[in-house]
Amino acid sequence: MKRISIYDTTLRDGTQGEGISLSLEDKLRIAAKIDTLGIDYIEGGWPGSNPKDMEFFNRIKEYPLKYAKVTAFGSTRRANIPAEEDKNLRAILESGVTAAAIFGKSWDFHVTTALRTTLEENLRMIEDSVRFLKENGLEVFFDAEHFFDGYKNNPQYALEAVKAAESAGVDVVVLCETNGGTLPHEVEEITGTVGSELKAPLGIHTHNDSELGVANALMAVRAGAVQVQGTINGYGERCGNCNLCSMIPNLQLKGGYQCIPEENMTKLTEVSLYVSELANQVHHNNMPFVGKSAFAHKGGIHASAILRDAKTYEHIDPEEVGNRQRVLVSELAGASNLEYKAKELGVDLSAINGHTRKIIERIKDLEHEGFQFDSADGSLELLMRKVTKEYIQSFTLEGFRLIMEKHGDNEILSEAVMKLKVEDEIVHTAAEGNGPVNALDNCLRKALEDFYPFIKDVHLTDYKVRVLDEKDGTAAKVRVLIESRDATSSWTTVGVSENIIEASWQALLDSIDYALFKYSNHGDGLFG
Question: Which helix (H) or strand (E) holds 305?
């Protein structure tokens, strides 16, 4: 099995993505997490560019990485400056790394326009820089920036640039598809041609501006590249980089290549989620392999088929990459979807023989009103348990009142006053909040805590509002999704109304009802 080296640049190239900013501690934690995959190289940053990156190289020595070699990034020496006097190259040595990637120009247009130097001096800059780092004992990768555009415009000079690096003893020549505009067949053809001209191993570094980052890297490997550079979740400048969370399983599970230890492949989804969390980025559901929806089935025919054999609608076993199969219940659902979901949630539908169709029709009616259950498992389970008569209402609302006050330039104050009937006792309570929904949440908890003390451990963690009919303006119907959790689990509930407070109350009520039902069935806590 052919070995492909994986070079991660999430901490450097990935941080150039819009909205991504990592603290030093974030970078250290992400590096340690990525290492658990068994990736070969983790690029820590550019030590000559800022103090934080240099501090990273000092601190990462405290972390005993099991697999990865930490690398530094930099550029070739400046024009007309000896390599040994170049500050950026000196900073790479001072970082203490044993491997480095330096980039240089391989497109003649960039040499004369961006660097404003001669083509001959650029070749000397490449050769001198690689040789200097090699003579100081480093493993060196040369990132030939804009190589494919350069090759298409002046193939002779692009080849001269990478041959300059080869003559200096470079370990890998990395062909960079920097602008992301080259098509896969072009990448394969050019990489193959370069491979026939060089003895040095080839690597590939692609960007995703044409939605081809992974495809182009795959074609380069097909043409002989032995190193792939990319980022977790495809983070990077503009449209991002080659997504290693797609590249690795495509190579290893489908292409027959060895990238990471086989036993580590199941950690891929976990690492993807971890990096998105620390980068403060939405973990998109539709990401291949690692997204929440990657193995989710909504159509009734699909669900019926996967109950017989998952291979009917799944290209791999989701557990191979640490993900899981999901069946969604919606207006598109059939009996198979509902039966699968009921089994997943632990609901026994045998008690209502032949009535699954009634539940499906009820779901369809509600979704026609704007409800959405494929992302609100808490509300869906409550709906099913009400039909199976397993649900017993723990309290009833007698009424509530919301008061909102604003005086001058001061913040708006929100207060909720509520009357509940709990265990045949009428409870009056009031509470403030930083908004009307928060006030209702605080008030409801306050009313229930004496009866159900565990409610103190349940917290609202996310609140989303979606306008369903924008054309209706402020009178539009809205859908509210609320995510809640305790110490061990989380659940999502939904509400829909033309009144945002009513929609929020529906979702909030389901959230608390769900917690109370679970507690009543697991006396030591939710799913405890």
Answer: helix 300-308
For residue 336, CA distances in Å to 302, 332, 355, 371 come to 9, 11, 13, 20
Distances (CA, A) of 230 to 42, 200, 296: 10, 21, 26
Report the alpha-carbon distance of residue 416 to residue 424 in Å, rounded: 22
* Token digits of residue 255: 């292409």
Cβ(161)–Cβ(123) under 8 Å?
Answer: yes
DSSP assignment of 217-245 equals HHHHHHTT--EEEEBGGG--STT-B-BHH
Cβ neighbours of 183 (radius 10 Å): 14
Q: Is the CATH code 3.40.1010.10 the one for domain 5-278?
A: no
**pTM of the predicted structure, to 2 decimals:** 0.73
Quick one: DSSP state of residue 56? H
pLDDT band for 331, please (50, 70, 90 cuts).
very low
What are the φ and ψ backbone dihedral angles of 345, each rounded to 5 degrees?
A: -90, -5
Q: What whole-number percentage of the chain has pLDDT above 90? A: 59
141-179: b (≥16 Cβ within 10 Å) or e: bbbbbbbbbbbeebeebbbbbbbbbbebebbbbbbbbbe
Give the distance between the most distant pair of CA atoms in the chain.
90
Tokens in use for 520? 């009543």
Quick one: three-class SS letters along 412-446?
CEEEEEEEEEECCEEEEEEEEECCHHHHHHHHHHH
Q: Residue 215 and residue 250: Cα distance in Å, rounded?
A: 10
* CATH fold match for the domains 5-278 and 395-521: no
Please tell me the distance from the alpha carbon of residue 447 to that of residue 453, in angstroms, as a whole number: 11
What lies within 8 Å, CB to CB, of 437 at 6+ separation is 463, 501, 504, 508
Higher pLDDT among residues 493 and 388, named by residue: 493
Going by C-beta distance under 8 Å and a sequence separation of 6 or more, which residues neighbour residue 195? 202, 223, 224, 225
pLDDT digits (tens, 9 = 90+) for 354-402: 566 666 667 666 766 777 676 677 888 887 777 766 677 888 889 999 9
Q: pLDDT class for 342, splitting at 50, 70, 90?
A: low
Candidate CATH numbers 3.30.160.270, 3.10.180.10, 3.30.70.3040, 1.10.10.10; the one for domain 395-521:
3.30.160.270
**Domain ranges, ordered by start, for the chain:** 5-278, 296-387, 395-521
CA 471 to chain CA centroid, Å, is 33
pLDDT tens-digit map of 47-106: 978 888 999 999 999 988 999 999 999 999 999 999 999 999 999 999 999 999 999 999
> Pairing state of beta strands 413-422 and 395-405?
antiparallel
Pairing of strands 172-177, 202-206: parallel
Q: Burial level of 409, CB count in 10 A (0-12/13-18/19+)?
A: exposed
